[in-house]
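Exercise 7. Predict the joint structure of the components listed below.
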Amino acid sequence: MPHRAVRSSRALFAVLAAGAVILAGCASGSSGGTPKAAGSSGSSSQAPSNNTNTSTTVGAYGTLPAASGTPVKGGTITYPIINGSTPTYIMPILPGADSTVYNQQFEELLYRPLYWFDVGNRPVINYPLSIGKAPVYSDGDKTVTVTMNPNYKWTDGASVDAQDVLFWIDELRAAVHPVKTDAANFGNYTPGDFPDNVDKASAPSKFTFVLHLTHAYNPNWFTETQLNLITPLPSTTWAQDKAGGTQLDYTNPANAKKIANFLEAQSGKLSTYASNPLWKDVDGPFTLTKFDSGTDANTMTANPAYGGPQKPVFQTLQALYFASSTAQFDAVRAGKLDLGEVSSDNLPQVPIIKRLGYNVYGYPGLGFQYTVFNFQDKTNHWKNIVDQLYFRQAIAHLQDEDAIIKGVYGGAAAAAYGPVPAVPATAYVPSDASTNPYPYSIQTASQLLSSHGWKVVPGGTTTCIKPGSGAGECGAGIPAGQNLNFTDYYTNDPASAGLQTTQLASAAAQVGIKVTPVAKTFNFIVDQYDDPIAPSNNNKWQVEFYGGFTEGAYPTTDTIFNTGGSNNEGDYSNKQADKLINDSKFSSNPNAVQDEASYLTKNLPAVFDPNPDLIYAWKGISGPPDSFSNLTQYGFTPEYWYLTSGS
Amino acid sequence: MTSYLIRRVASAVIVVLGVMAATFLMLHAVFPSPAKVVLGARTTPQAIAAFNRDNGFDRSVGAQFLTYVNHTIHGNFGYSYKLNQSVNSLFKENAGRSALLSGVSLVLAVVIAVPLGIAQAVKRNSLFDYVATGTSFTLYSMPIFFVSLLLIAILSLKLNWFPFEASQASTVIGVIKQPRSMVLPVVSLTIVSVASFSRYLRSSALDNLAQDYIKVARAKGLSERSVLYRHLVRNSSLPIITLVGLSLPDLLAGNLITEEVFNFHGLGLLFFAALGNEDYSILLAYTLVGGILVVLGNLVADIALSMTDPRIRLT
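Solution:
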């Protein structure tokens, strides 16, 4: 399962607070040997230029050095896993509780997904690093044919072939369709989507498989949200229901269920990860040689049989556990980590680690942060107020993104005005993504209110003086004398959330809107103040800021902003938005996501906030710039790195 | 004595049940189900329903509590759905390391605090006493995380005398084999305890120095050394028994901050991680173990006091 499959607010804030090193592709190099310095050779047509000095790039923090130094063969490279990001599952069908980018990072070093995402800091498919070639859609987009790269081998010498894909699909069906546990058995399972939308799967040749779909889907959507879930499994060694058992016919659903149960049980035995023969059969660039469930550290060694474009030059990849981002940064300051993470709290100490020889680079990951409106809260006529677009526009005008980026994030963030920000660049960025439709302006916010029947009292209490639903009136259901007071719940960690909320409250006071910021834990907010999950609390909150979503390569907001969406926290509902989101999934329009994002940017289902950088520091190692910049997109391709002499 | 013990054990059971009920109900009052946090913000209602069904969160709180008590009685602390391991195995992996860290610190604290407190009392109002008192107050008033961060910043990052983190060995033996890496965490725990213990010892010793038996001992011509070691130290050390008894919970469950700051794998760090994950099973087991140790520590202290001080009779 490619890392792009996991999308969650947890990922976004967890990365900020604790950090993560995840997987993704980087383009370069031929098989074996030293990674090419500037790493573009052999990359996909979507590969970016390998800009090695991005200090002037919008949203970038620090610089991205070119590959340098004399490569050393062998050696050990260390990187951190921080509390909350420890590997807890190894089989590449991650259950809901284990469906984190961190588990994907861990297992994708061992088991390569069908499609690899990220070319440097661009979240796009990296075909040179993918097992699957570009899918071909036919039959009115109801049939998908994928040809596989024949170079990939399992440890036992068998080719990674179409049967391994079908095996994964059969095991996924077995995992999500038993009587009891179903949906929670696969974290990326959405009923109706993969594998439910695959009517039939077949393998007409050794390296080609064909999926017959139940509906015609937008090809981009299907490729980047469904095919990207696939991770071939070794069908010739894993199709058993007990250790050392005979290989079963996994196309028989009963057998597939037995196999799924067996693999799940084995995956629950963390202390045996490094010794269980099952997990020795890999097709990734590394094999697991040590896994300490007591300290959560693990060690991998280079897999000489890896069939991808770049075999590791160094010998050992060591993941070290840290209880907190502070403890991790202590290790960076002590020079004990080859790769480390830099949280926003650590930014003042960046000059210190630079003096120690660390390179530091950051860039925003694909996704968005947002201040969510609750469209269901009826207290104090809030629902009627927030239903008014002019009111949401006024609030958006009160948000000073430039000041937040400078003052809160120390410049390590990029402006974002909608669900698909201008950076990182993808094919789905709307043409108007760089233009803020509602730039910071107290005056404009004030005018919007006064032109809609409100008496604006700067520093006081703005009230409705023209009730009614006509032009120039406050809006339906808003009585005369109504004020604009609301509570804004924000997550107490990281500190940037409080600072952002305070900025909004301060600006709002200047137009007579009283915003009361209240801090809550992240867990409390996502547990309690979420309309689809906790509808009994719909009347308990008006606005909240808990972070946002790390988006997939195909950044539709399906489930987030469509009516009744399972992740539609504030229950936003808009027919036009519903149509555009539906088009992103089902129409053949290649620009559907751009249209969707552009509309939502203007219609404001929420106020979109700056997108902070994910910042990394490394020392004594080098490699193609893409192999470091892809870290910011949750990518992790250490096989392209090498220790430099003298390190 | 026997009837006293029976009564204390009975009351201990009630206290432990109270701890279980209180922590269980409070957790469930705040978060009836951790499904959303565990499964992630992008989860589906179907997955949440399945998770709640699998883990019993769709049952009544009373039914869940009874199941919890039943499992606990049978030695089953449950399963960590975030760490994908049984709580029993997690405790087994981490308890030894926590006990080692706390045990060494506790012993060191006692070894240092007893003579320090006695010396302060004997040389009360001297420059030594003032300096020791000032130092104790300073250390006692400092949060342990601050002491720990100072130690790391100065002795590790600045002077590079010690590692910035504790031993990462997975076994107790492995930790023992890396004594240098344990210096800072042990010191951070010890100095705060020394500051506290020495104050109790000083007060106790001052009281005892004014007692008639000390005057009698001196009048009989005993050397000052004998007066101190044979009479004063033994009688003044009684508060230490109580303090050590109350410190017993720390052996397994009290070093949350130190383990977190020094990246040391113990029960405290396990609890710290569980807090962020709403990992109910670990949170419940940790507080239960803490409660049991508090009760046990008090009982052991009372019994030890009665054995060392003939004036105390447990009835």
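Discussion. Chain B touches chain A through 52 residues (CB under 8 Å).
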